[in-house]
Design goal:
mainly alpha, single chain, 11 helices, 3 domains, 287 residues, three-stranded antiparallel β-sheet
Length: 287
């Protein structure tokens, strides 16, 4: 019996198996629970559904994204800034932030389908939910649907959350998280001339290994679009470009008519690195 068949059978009989009041034998319950955990550990890499088991995404799209990031990073600073007109830095920045949170989302879902009671789930899941909510807020995603999902899930932990409710919350969060992540990758693909990253993401969450492999290229893309430390931009045409989040140093050379604006709209990041924040509104970037 393959994993799909095992999982379908277990889920069909889950209510009976986990009804402790019916006095099922401990051995039966333990064995069923062990089988459930073993199946879910593999099945929940993608959360399109508990029975939607897919193979890990191929490396080729990752290699294409890495090649594109390398190519952009090698361009002169003025060209990299100009690229912000067709590749908004918010896309790889948000994708990077969500990618770092994928292991936490996956662990929460696995726990929801592994524990037999809401009480045990609450005590185990609370630190991860706090970390998830905080991570979304640090990434500037407060008020988004994902943040609302995560915050609602966290709020329920203070009440009499049943394991059935925990699973519903976990799947809602998982689905919303996965769809947003896939949409970001799809849009980066489109603007980067089709690296096809999102082809295997579907409506489910990418696996943890694939997420880890995404971090490097996404971080490099963000850096290519934001770092002009030490660059000579005296002849760059900056008109019409959004410079929010651009990082520069004291030896960066700006067009003469931009120097005062850049200085007045920047905040220090380190001893000799500054970030442009028009109106000092703030921004988040991977470091």
């Amino acid at each position: 019996m393959n994993i799909d068949q095992q999982l379908a059978a277990l889920l069909t009989s889950l209510d009976d198996v986990l009804d402790l009041e019916r006095g099922l034998a401990d051995a039966t319950l333990s064995r069923a629970h062990a089988e459930l955990v073993a199946g879910l550990a593999d099945a929940l890499d993608l959360a399109a559904g508990l029975a939607d088991v897919v193979q890990p995404p191929p490396l080729a799209p990752l290699e294409r994204l890495a090649a594109f990031a390398d190519e952009l990073a090698a361009r002169p600073a003025a060209e990299r800034l100009a690229a912000r007109s067709w590749l908004s830095v918010s896309l790889p920045t948000e994708a990077y932030a969500l990618t770092t949170l994928i292991p936490t989302v996956r662990d929460l879902t696995v726990k929801a389908f592994s524990f037999k009671s809401g009480r045990k789930f609450r005590s185990s899941a609370q630190p991860e939910l706090w970390r998830l909510v905080h991570g979304l807020e640090v990434a500037g995603l407060q008020g988004t649907q994902l943040h609302q999902f995560a915050h609602a899930f966290l709020d329920t932990l203070g009440h009499s959350l049943t394991i059935v409710e925990a699973r519903r919350h976990a799947l809602t969060l998982n689905q919303g998280f996965a769809e947003r992540h896939a949409n970001l990758l799809r849009e980066i693909d489109r603007r980067a001339h089709g690296s096809a990253l999102a082809q295997r993401v579907h409506s489910g969450l990418v696996d943890v290994a694939f997420a880890g492999a995404l971090l490097g290229p996404l971080s490099q893309l963000v850096s290519a679009l934001t770092s002009v430390v030490g660059a000579d931009l005296t002849s760059a045409d900056l008109a019409g470009l959004s410079l929010d989040g651009v990082r520069w140093s004291s030896d960066t050379r700006w067009p003469e008519d931009w120097e005062a604006w850049v200085r007045d709209n920047s905040v220090p990041i380190t001893d000799d690195v500054f970030e442009i924040r028009p109106g000092k509104a703030g921004s988040w970037l991977p470091t």
